[in-house]
Amino acid sequence: MKIIPDSIPRLVHLLLLAELFVQTLSRPTHNRSLCDLFRSMVPQVDKLMNFSKSRHALTDEEFREIAAADHRLDSLPEIKLTATDLTSMKMNESVSQLYHFSDLFRLHVDWLKSARGNVSLPTQPTEGASKHLLQLTHLLNSTLHQIHEEVPQTPPLSLPVVSTAFDALVFSIEISEKLQVFCFWTKSSLRILQAQSHCPRR
Ligand SMILES: *[C@@H]1O[C@H](CO)[C@@H](O)[C@H](O)[C@H]1NC(C)=O
Ligand SMILES: *[C@@H]1O[C@H](CO)[C@@H](O)[C@H](O)[C@H]1NC(C)=O
Ligand SMILES: *[C@@H]1O[C@H](CO)[C@@H](O)[C@H](O)[C@H]1NC(C)=O
Ligand SMILES: *[C@@H]1O[C@H](CO)[C@@H](O)[C@H](O)[C@H]1NC(C)=O
Ligand SMILES: *[C@@H]1O[C@H](CO)[C@@H](O)[C@H](O)[C@H]1NC(C)=O
Questions:
Q1: Given 14, 28, 77, 82, which is the most exposed site by the fewest CB atoms within 10 A?
Q2: Is 93 in the pocket of ligand 2 (CB under 6 A)?
Q3: What pLDDT does residue 32 have?
Q4: In Å, how far are 112, 129, 154 from 151, measured between CA atoms?
Q5: Is there an atom of ligand 4 within 6 Å of 92 CB?
Q6: What is the pLDDT of residues 105-114, one digit of tens each?
Q7: Distance, CA of 167 to CA of 113 (rounded, Å)
Q8: Could you tell me the sign of the dihedral formed by the alpha carbons of 42, 100, 145, 11, in that order?
Q9: Residue nearest to atom 2 of ligand 2 (CA)
């Protein structure tokens, strides 16, 4: 679980590159319904980012200790994205992938909610994240319909049974850190998609 915090500056850099790239594109006509969909996704991602930053009420010391535990959720996507991937993005492929990843995160967060509930940890933050991920998948689903793309089906997951509060915390941290990477990636992708679709800047 070494992605964070080292990769955050790199992710911020990526977001800036996306901004720069966006400014080089001209903006003639735009597709209103598509632009509205992309625009509605942004606040959902911002709220998710809030959850992914939460430290689950741990002290720095506890956090480091738990974060040092091995990561175990192979079913969560490891998002690796370069500036080249961003600038050569195809709308159909990236919307499908955004949908697929947000659906995966939603399933993991729902599982985490059940895990935390079982060991009497607060489930409130996971409920919020689950709600925003659900909204995001709905919006991405509508986008896929708009661009006449198939909605990818998420195969059933087999996630472990969680029996201790420690395990639930390890998984909470793993999910929130990967979710943070997902949020940066989604924000960058949305900026590019908005530019490619010539959406007006706010
Ligand atoms: C993030 O959380 C803080 C504190 O919980 C809250 O004040 C802020 O409005 C939240 N931001 C978003 C975008 O939800
Ligand atoms: C996505 O669209 C491009 C053209 O814009 C096309 O070449 C490519 O095959 C499409 N990919 C999929 C998976 O449909
Ligand atoms: C996706 O959108 C279609 C049409 O807009 C709708 O019929 C379907 O129920 C939606 N599915 C999900 C999972 O949101
Ligand atoms: C917007 O784009 C979608 C998908 O490409 C298309 O179905 C729709 O007709 C477009 N609307 C306009 C106003 O161009
Ligand atoms: C939580 O408990 C229920 C009921 O015992 C069980 O079915 C479920 O798998 C548990 N969830 C996790 C993530 O361990």
A1: 28
A2: yes
A3: 87
A4: 25, 22, 9
A5: no
A6: 999 999 999 9
A7: 13
A8: positive
A9: 92
